[in-house]
User: Fold these one by one.
Assistant:
Number 1:
Amino acid sequence: VHGIKRSDRNIGKVYSKSSSFLDYVRISLKKLELDESKISDSLVLEYFEKYKHRMNELEAFNMLKVVLGPCIEVLILLDRLCYLKEQENIAWSGLVKLFDPIKSPRCYAVVALKK
């Protein structure tokens, strides 16, 4: 997508604030600072009708993300920690909880001290 930096491509929790798919698309385009006038309402609704039969697949994918996401994040943290444990110039390494995991699941930091 032109004009958008890769780090800016997150629209956040727009879906829960939207009253319809069309509203979701319009809010998302505004948040991404894209020209929404280039996409007509009829085109958006046409796409929705064309792919709505796949909504169950989308819901299943989102459930997998919710269930497997934290597991994958822990595996990544443990992999980084194992790498540090293997290094001869590291005196100590560990996972440190920075804040309450209820507020944010990404509450851990990988910390290491050099020898």
Note: The chain has a mean pLDDT of 90.
Number 2:
Amino acid sequence: IGWFGVLMIPTLLTATSVFIIAFIAAPPVDIDGIREPVSGSLLYGNNIISGAIVPTSAAIGLHFYPIWEAASVDEWLYNGGPYELIVLHFLLGVACYMGREWELSFRLGMRPWIAVAYSAPVAAATAVFLIYPIGQGSFSDGMPLGISGTFNFMIVFQAEHNILMHPFHMLGVAGVFGGSLFSAMHGSLVTSSLIRETTENESANEGYRFGQEEETYNIVA
């Protein structure tokens, strides 16, 4: 398991468990800190599309808000405590997953690029769940954990910051679509040059053994 696994397993289990429970049954949250709670759970009138874990109240700001800091569990739920709990455990968990990818690659004598590639979505999640709320001064500005909540976050972000006109965002979009295109082109080219090593009765994966010296594809095909 490794030390990364020791930390990853409890953090991701905690984040997942609280997310499921809160998505189903959490009471409305006073996200704006103005005593107008917003419901996000299934039992309070939402469906799979409209449901979400509503971000922690603006009244809490960036304060660390574990259960024991509230006067009661009801107060903790009203102020959106589950959101902060889920996000912080989730970010720690995925960071450990990335470290685990590196550790396993290292122990197998592989290069570290799997973990490096995974660092991109980790950075994106950290940006919307932690960096942006810090910049705005409140976890209430973080992205809600739901489908409609994600779209709402995108619309508000565009309205407040005009992100679509930012050159770095343009480069990011071009990079994502360009990367997808080049991955498809590269993968299809390499796959089409494979030398058949198996019959119809066995998996194509049997045609390669990790560490084998002979080639499995024809570079001039």
Note: Residues 25 and 43 are 5 Å apart (CA to CA).
Number 3:
Amino acid sequence: IHNARKLIGDGALGKISLAKAMWNWHFDVPLRDDPPSGKLDWERFQGPAPHRPLDPKRFWWWRGFWDYSGGNMTDQGTHLMDVVQWLTGNSSPKSAICGGCIANAKRGEVPDVFTAVFEYQDMMATWTLNYASAYEFDWSITLQGEQATMFIDRRGYRVVKDPGGSAQPWTASPPKDIVAEMPDKDSGELHQQNFLDCIKSRKEPNCTVETAAAAVAGPHMANLAYRQGRKITA
């Protein structure tokens, strides 16, 4: 990711107009109703959330309920929008809209299929999650620039040069020759090590509290847009 950021900073993509974050996973595991083994302090588990009778599925799959989490939107979106904003030099978005549905997790409350659209100062971004399909399985980020497009996933990054607006008829398939690429070598281990080192040294980690807050701001705005059925502005 650091190498990808340097490449972007050096102008390899040109002006970025659109970022697309995506996560696909065919998640069809039924919500559990069996009581947890051992002792469970249900009152403590609920914390300041509204009091509800003991419900095992709320314990096992707490992230599927608005009382305890921001759902899949903030769960995975925080990770991906952090990368999008860091790579493009943006902080939290100016506005957000969102639409979604519950395709498989019918006994939960949060959508398991959605698309959020974020407006930044000079670009747009989308965050799409589909937990009802394994097509293009796992996460990915696409950054579309005037000069080239960058694809990022667990394999690393790849850059494809843009042929230009008049280079091909709009019906033709544009060339997809890879002009730059780098495989993932550490799978996040260096990032985790930085956090552990900072616990010992008391230094500021690579991802500061302010950076993390900005990363989750967009997903929070998108959740509000989804639940209220309107555009949310910062």
Note: The helical segments are 2-9, 42-46, 56-60, 71-88, 189-201, 209-228.
Number 4:
Amino acid sequence: MLKDILIFIMMSIISYFTVTLIHELGHVIAGLCNGLKFFMLVIGPLGLMRDENDKIKLYIEKNTLFWGGIAGTTPIENSNISINTISSILIAGPIVQLLSGLIFIFVFLYSSKIFFLLLGAMAVGVSIMCLIPLPRIGGVLTDGTRWLKIRKNKEYGLVETAFFNIAQSYYKYRNCSQINFSDVSNLINNEDPCNQYMGHYFLMHYYKDNGDIENMEEEIKYLENLEEKLPVSFIKIYNYKDA
């Protein structure tokens, strides 16, 4: 009995990381299909990242908040990316995960292997949760919510584009010293407190990386005022006090 329970627990853990990997690979594949190049992939404590020499290396991710899965692709050259490309990358993760889940269930029906049922049920369940346009969960929007916001609201498209551009600048220079002020403004001027916080958060790092301590401290004041409006889990991810 105990052995069966332990086996089931192990299968559940393996299933979770497998379906998470599939989800993140969906984002990566969509990026590659749109002419971008692989940059990073994190599943659990293990990560792959393209370094400053343009080589992909295996590393240990120390930030446990990323262990749930994160992936990214980046333009091959310094070029603008369309909002349609961003939206396709967003939705590809849960779509690929959903399709793989249905395949796993189909395999289970023919093999009767419980592991495939577990994989299928978990993949379908998680993908549906990611596709449903839900409110923020711990300060984070689901892929489906973000995709729908892009399709319905031009202003939110500017928000997603800003996040993408800032991320690319950070990946290229390994700091925020070269981020674009127009991207930061699109975040700060958005009505969502989470986006406002992120705008000031990036601007704080911009001033810090350029040695402007006075303006950095001004941005910290904005962050302190916004902090009480946001979920604790969100602040843990983007904690200005760790800067």
Note: Residues 169 and 178 are 6 Å apart (CA to CA).
